[in-house]
Amino acid sequence: MGFLIWLEEGALGIFIRESLWGYPIVLSSHAVGMAIVMGVVIALNLRVLGYAKDISILAYDKLFIIGWIGFIINLISGLILFCNTPTTYFFQGSFQLKIGSIVLGGILMKVVMNSVRGNTSETMTKVASAACIACWFGAMITGRLMAYL
Amino acid sequence: MDYDTYAPLASWFESTWLGGQMREQFWMFPMMETIHFIGITFLFGSLLVIDMRVIGFGRFINMKAAMKYIPVAIIAFAVNLSTGIAFLCADPFRYFPNIAFQWKMGLIVIAGINALWFWFGEHKELSQLADGEDAPFRAKVIAALSLAIWVGVIIFGRMIPYVEY
């Protein structure tokens, strides 16, 4: 709790609360980052689930780099947004679910890519892929609901 | 925009059944917002595959197969157009005079023209590219514009609540 208060009272917390354009600019970056990360996750998992089969899954490697750029944008913008009211967010159920979904979605993305490169059965790969999409959707739904709950 | 110009249209939007539902059911607005967000990720993800292939960053993606993401993008756009109309019906007098909303709509029109140019001007030639083959410079410009415009759409969309007066 001490750490959360320190964050809230720190320079980033003050900036995001008091600067006129700070909050909307960081929030917009978070939306752009989301479109990039989620876009890559969805496009890739659609392919793993059997859509656009003529594309080699390994050809998506380059898109992964773009996905990581989006992820870093959102990690940074997310941390700054968190400093707005960390003492509230930290205990908010929708926020906790969002972070949990992102961690799980990230692990599942790794599982999917390992299955694609290894010799895991196609069914297992698709199950992991569907679960991966579900987690990232979960992150978006809970993220949006943070504004309401 | 001048109030007298948009007021009749805005009143009509406001009077629709959808507008009433959006205002009366507390869960409608957040649900539509969430769908709108999921829609943009499908749209932007599809564009990333197609446009990055054309730009040359994901050059080993099969170009013809990448075009299969076009229907995904179109469906996602239709979903976002529908959910977007729902927001508009909920509170049209808030959106019409909103400068971020106006820019967003303008950019979407430009994105549409850019997409038509891609489809009618470049699509055929691009479909014949071999894996790893470079796209013509003109096509790369269209692809880069497409991504830049949609980033702009996302930014202006997110700015709508913050530029109200």
Compact description:
The complex is a heterodimer of chains A (149) and B (165). Chain A contains seven helices and no strands. Chain A is mainly α.
Structure notes:
The complex is a heterodimer of chains A (149) and B (165). Chain A has helices at residues 2-9, 11-18, 22-48, 61-82, 86-89, 93-117, 122-145. Chain A has one domain. With 149 residues, chain A is an all-alpha fold. Chain B is an all-alpha fold and 165 residues long. Chain B has one domain. Chain B contains 8 helices and no strands. Chain B has helices spanning 3-15, 17-24, 28-55, 63-66, 69-90, 92-95, 99-127, 137-159. The longest helix of chain B is centred in the last third of the chain and has 29 residues, at 99-127.
List the helices and strands and how they pair.
The complex is a heterodimer of chains A (149) and B (165).
Chain A lengths: L1 H8 L1 H8 L3 H27 L12 H22 L3 H4 L3 H25 L4 H24 L4
Helix pairs in contact in A: 3-4, 3-7, 6-7
Chain B lengths: L2 H13 L1 H8 L3 H28 L7 H4 L2 H22 L1 H4 L3 H29 L9 H23 L6
Shape of chain A: elongated
The helical percent of chain A reads: over 70%
Oligomer classification: heterodimer
First-to-last CA distance of chain B: 13 Å
Rg of chain A (C-alpha, Å): 17 Å
- How big a fraction of the residues of chain B is strand? under 5%
The arrangement of helices and strands of chain A along the chain is HHHHHHH
Total count of strands of chain B = 0
Secondary-structure content class of chain A: mainly alpha
Instruction: Tell me the Rg of chain B in angstroms.
Output: 18 Å
Structural class of chain B: mainly alpha
Tell me the number of structural domains of chain A: 1
User: What's the number of extended β-strand segments of chain A?
Assistant: 0
Task: Name the beta content range of chain A.
Answer: under 5%
Number of domains of chain B: 1
Mean pLDDT score of chain B: 94
